Amino acid sequence: MQNDIKEVLYSEEQIGAKVRELGAKLSADYEGRNPLVICVLKGAFIFMSDLVKTITVPLEIDFMAVSSYGASTKSSGVVKIIKDLDVSVEGRDVLIVEDIIDSGLTLSYLIDVLERRGSNSVTVVTLFDKPARRTVSLEPHYKGFTLPDEFVVGYGLDYAEQYRNLPYIGILKPQVYEK
Ligand code: XMP
Ligand code: MG
């Protein structure tokens, strides 16, 4: 598995420090509120579990799955809800936890859906951002790291469902997906 990685971009320790920093900011900003924290499956599952442990305000969690890249490395532009939330977002302060923003299509669709369902606020925290690839205008409220335009895996992110368990984020060798 490690042999398929061209370069480690951020180590487990660097990611951990950044997650704690984001958690401290969110804890201060959500003081006195009870946010509904939504994990966008599957990629955000590790970030979500690490992040909520660093947030000190009471909160609820829920999960959503939307269609993404499948086994390809490019967005199809088609977003579909595969698993919806269990709870209502009406009147709630919603915090969307994303692994990575690329074109921004997935997230702009999600924000729109959650706003139309009557949420009080919709805020986005993403661990990784590839702003160079944006096709819709979208700026996350909180972000961890800005990445170069390379396909990355690890810390929840996959290629063809593999590599999610790597504790760091790294660039996948192109020969892995060009085979
Ligand atoms: P969009 O283009 O809608 O895509 O912003 C966001 C979703 O695409 C996936 N994605 C990646 N997954 N390595 C991955 O493993 C990457 O480099 C990458 N870029 C985008 C991811 O699921 C994200 O939620
Ligand atoms: Mg994926």
From TrEMBL:
Top enzyme category: transferase
Localization terms from the record: Cytoplasm
Domain called Phosphoribosyltransferase: residue spans: 10-159
Entry similarity comment: Belongs to the purine/pyrimidine phosphoribosyltransferase family.
Domain of life: Bacteria
GO cellular component entries: cytosol
GO molecular function: guanine phosphoribosyltransferase activity; hypoxanthine phosphoribosyltransferase activity; magnesium ion binding; nucleotide binding
Stated name of the protein: Hypoxanthine phosphoribosyltransferase
Keywords: Cytoplasm, Glycosyltransferase, Magnesium, Metal-binding, Nucleotide-binding, Purine salvage, Transferase
Catalysed reactions listed for this entry: IMP + diphosphate = hypoxanthine + 5-phospho-alpha-D-ribose 1-diphosphate; GMP + diphosphate = guanine + 5-phospho-alpha-D-ribose 1-diphosphate
One of the GO BP terms on file: IMP salvage
Cofactor names: Mg(2+)
Pathway, per record: Purine metabolism; GMP biosynthesis via salvage pathway; GMP from guanine: step 1/1; Purine metabolism; IMP biosynthesis via salvage pathway; IMP from hypoxanthine: step 1/1
